[in-house]
Amino acid sequence: MKENIQEQIIELIKAALKDAGLGQDRGEDLYLDIPAEARFGDFSTNIALRLSKPLHKPPREVAETLIKAFYKQAQKTALKESIAEIKTEGPGFINFYLNAKYHYGKLREILSRGKEALRIDLGKKKRVLVEFVSANPTGSLSVAHARQAAVGDSLANILEFLGFAAKREYYLNDVGNQISILAKSVALRIQELAGEKIEFPEDHYQGEYIYEIAKEAGKQKINPQSLGDFAANYILDIIRKELDDFGVKFDCWYSQKELEKSAKIQKAFDFLKKKEFLYESDGALWFKSTSFGDDKDRVVIKSDGSYTYLAPDIAYHNDKYKRGFEWLINLWGPDHHGYINRLKASVAAFGRDPETLSIVIVQLATIFRNGKPVQMSTRRGEYITLREVLDEVGRDAARFFFLMRRTTSHLDFDLEIAKKQTSENPVYYVQYAHARISSILRNGGVKLNKEADLALLKEKEELGLVKKILQFSYILNICLKTQDPYMLTVYLQELSEAFHKFYDLHRVLSDDPELTQARLGLIEGARIVIATGLELLGVSRPEKM
Hints:
Layout: H1 5-19, E1 43-45, H2 47-55, H3 59-74, E2 83-89, E3 93-98, H4 100-113, E4 127-131, H5 143-161, E5 165-172, H6 177-193, H7 208-219, H8 227-245, E6 252-255, H9 256-261, H10 264-274, E7 278-281, E8 284-287, E9 298-301, H11 310-322, E10 327-332, H12 340-349, E11 357-361, E12 365-369, E13 372-373, H13 386-402, E14 411-414, H14 415-419, H15 426-443, H16 460-469, H17 472-482, H18 486-505, H19 513-536
Parallel strand pairs: 4-5, 4-10, 5-6, 10-11, 12-14
Antiparallel strand pairs: 1-3, 2-3, 7-8, 8-9, 12-13
Helix pairs in contact: 1-3, 2-3, 4-19, 5-13, 6-7, 6-8, 7-8, 10-11, 11-12, 15-18, 15-19, 16-18, 16-19, 17-18, 18-19
């Protein structure tokens, strides 16, 4: 039986489906919801609604049949100690009500073991490589890159917390046309600084940083043939510092230049040729990606002998698997959406399951200042950088705000709200809850007894806070399944709201010593979860504000 209660209930549903003769395999894509209102229980499933049509039976009739099977199967598992009631409500939802013994027991476990009680080993040390940001070293990181950095790093944190062996990687596109244009841009600025009148092409990099690189290259008397490498390394140092200040550290910086120098691309192509997945046509070399579901075959070596973008990517991803990674997660910008099928086709061509490659498209972000969007142009250098956001709002607000929408949704980042020290600012609101609890525990004059009688917690707001605390593992499971940390930001705001609501209505340090201890245990449980959630998002946990 699985360790976490949600997985236990899902296993129960599968067993009940089989017991009721409704099909052993119909529960393979099961999931649970948390009802919007606490009066509808702790968890809910729509399985009866889904089975209604194929079974030609009303949903509530299917639900009643399943509920009988649930009770029968629950007697064979540890769930018989945790479930108080199972009933059908509404059009046919099946709701699970956990008993008070379960709620108090889990809260006590959190008090006893701290954040270790919140860990669920779903990963079993499975090796995962999360590749993100991977911006060309041609300029400072934009807010689009910053959003990818926040998402990728937080996702890797969550994966590690859930028992995966996760590594972070930056793919460095340090060769090719963009580096050539960068070199030409610097060369022209060197000429200009020397007093020459130049015509600067529109498609070259025009930011002020190009002048700084040109000045430094002049001081160091860099050879013209080495300008591309010099400029790329100069910018890469800036990128590394920006990411470090953002709290993002990579385990590996993987160079495309080194990949192309190695024999890895040729070895990958030799394998594909042997399998007859490469062919020549019109003087070019083509990958037969249509054999694996792509809409058309793709060129990997052009007629002039140069690589397409796909060529090194095929070898790079093959190398990821060869390094022992079992699950690859790539975070890409929206302009790469059409690239997914061809890369998955290459994974399949090497005999691997394309489902082990997950592509997460992270939509763009728009920065607002004084209610107006800031216009951006990468080539002209007229864009808000990660550095500017960090300088203006700080690391905590920057990371939290970049995560506050689903990765599939465009993000509007309001700099003015991010700077506010009020409850209108979501990260301030959550951090304030942590600081407020820390202050009570530190200055209340009463030492927390972790063996307090938690059954004294009976008020609506107390029970609501207990249940919200215990939803943490459910939320992390959603983040895992969606490869998106967004829901954790929502949850932390809801948990903080539940704490503030409880605290505004009930005295923690009451005249009843036993009730005081129970309530101290309650808020300490909330503090542990808030602190753990903020840590996973890379946000600080202040004890004073």
